[in-house]
Amino acid sequence: MRLRVLGRLIAIQRVLVRHGLDDFVRATHLYRPLRFLFFLSPWTWFQRRHGAGRAERLRLALEDLGPIFVKFGQALSTRRDLLPPDIADELARLQDRVPPFDGATARAAIERSLGHPVAELFGEFDATPLAAASIAQVHAARLKDGREAVVKVLRPGMREVIGRDLEVLYALAGLAERWSEVARRLKALEVVREYEQTVLDELDLMREAANASQLKRNFAGSPLLYVPEVHWDLCRADVMVMERIRGVPIGDLAELRRRGVDFKQLAESGVEIFFTQVFRHNFFHADMHPGNIFVLADDPARPRYAAVDFGIVGTLDLRDQRYLAENFLAVFDRDYRRVAELHVESGWVPAGTRVDEMESAIRTICEPIFDRPLVEISFGTVLLRLFEALRRFDGQIQPQLILLQKTLLNVEGLGRQLYPQLDIWKTASPVLRAWMRERVSPRTLLRELGRGLPDAVEVMKALPSIAKRFIERSQDHELRLPIDTRAIDELRAEIAAGNRRRDRLLLGAVLLLGGVFWLGLGLAPPWAAWAALVAGAVTLGAAGGIGSR
Fold first, then answer.
1. Catalytic residues, which ones?
2. Is the pLDDT of residue 116 over 70?
3. Which of 96, 369, 371, 432 could form a disulfide with 291 if both were Cys (CB 3.0 to 4.6 A apart)?
C-alpha cells in the first residue's frame, strides 16, 4: 500500500477520533490491524470534542473528510426510513450547507477562466455564496442584459483532493476483495471504478452544462420538469453560468403547504419524471437529492419541478434497459417466475440457477409489499432483503446499474416526504407499458430500419467484390484460415510437460520398488538400496507424485 494512502487512512482515523466517533473505526474490520494507533496517538487522548450530539459530530466529520464523504452523507440523508431522526436531520444540512470558500477566491477563478474582470462579464456579482456544495459553490449574478443568473465555481484543489481519496477507495476495495467473499461478490473494485468515472465527470463543468442542455431538450414543453438555460459563452471547465431558478426547495414542506401545493400530484409527477427519464429518454438526472430539486408553484394544483446540478447523469444500454422494464412490469404483475427468468437471461445470476427456487425466494420478498401505501414500504429494505435472498444463487451487483438504484432510492425518499400514501406501482406502470408498446410498434421498427439502412446499403455494395475475391482465391488454392499459433504452442508445451511428468513418475516408482526388493532380498551392498529409495522419493516428489491429489 502506498504511503500516501496509508497516511490518508490514518488521517481518516484522526478525524473520526477527534469528533468522538472512535466506535466507527474500531468496528471496521479493515482498520483492526491499526488499532494500536488509538493507544499510541496523542489525538486519541487530547483532541476529542465534547458537547455536540452524535449527529452533529458525524456531519462535522464528513465535512472535514472532504467531498467524497460529503456525497456519502448526502445520499444517506434521503433515507429517513433507514436512519435515526437526529442523524437524518443533521445529514440533510450537507445538501447545501457545506462550508463555502472565500468569495475573492471564486472571483479570481472566474476571471482566470473567462479571461476578463468580473465587472466586464456581469452587471452584478454577489461575492457571498448563494449555496456551497462538496465540489463547487454557486454565486448569484445578473447578466449585462439584466437577466438573473447563477455562477458555479469549482472548489480550488478539488482534482488533487479527489484523486487522493480515490486512491484510498481503491486500496480499501482491494483489501476488501482480498479478504471478504461478500466484497468479491459485490465487485467492490468495479464499483469504485464506476464511481471514479462519475466523480471525475463532475469536475468538468462543461460536461455538466452539456448535460443540462440535453435534459432541457428532452423536457421541452413538458409540464413536469423545467431545466434552466445554459449561457454557453460564459462556461468553461471550472466555471458554469446558467439561468437562476426562483422556486421553493423541495425540502421546505411548510412553504409548499402555505402555497397550497398539491402534494399527491407533486409526488406522482416525481415518479413519472424518473421513469420517463430512464426508459423514454434513456438519460436521467442521477443526483436527485433535495438540495438539487425545486418546485415552481405558480399553479399549486399543477406544480412543476425544476432541477439544478447536472454533474451526474446516467444512461443504460438497450439490453439493460429492456431487462429492467420487463423486471419492473413482471413485479407489478406478480409474475415472479418471469422475474427469475429475466435475472438468468440477463446474466445477473449464473446460467445454471434453479429458476423455481429463485421464483420462490422472490415471491417471499415481493408478495407482502403489494396493496400497501408507500409509508409502510421501504424500497431500501426490499432491495436489501432481495439481495440477501439472491446471495444463495450467487447473485452479483451490476456496477452499471448503481446510479439507477441510487436515483430510485432518492426518488423514494422524496416521495415519502411529500405524500406517504403514494402508490408507486400505479404511477409507474403506465409509463413502462407505454414504453414497451412503443419499442415494438411498427413506427419504431421502421425508424430503426431507417437508421440502419445506410449501413445495410454500404454492406450490399461491398458484397459482390468480396464474394468475387473469395471465389478467385479459393480457385487458386490461396484461401487460408487464420490460426492462433500461440494457443497451439501452449498446448504442445502442456503436452510435453505432461509427458515429462509421466516419465518422472514412472522412473521414481521403478527406483522405489527396486530399492524395496533389494532390501527385501538382502542383496549387497545395502547402501545401493537406500540410494534407490531416496532417488525414487526425490523423483516422485519433483513430479508431484507425493502429496498431490
1. 287
2. yes
3. 96
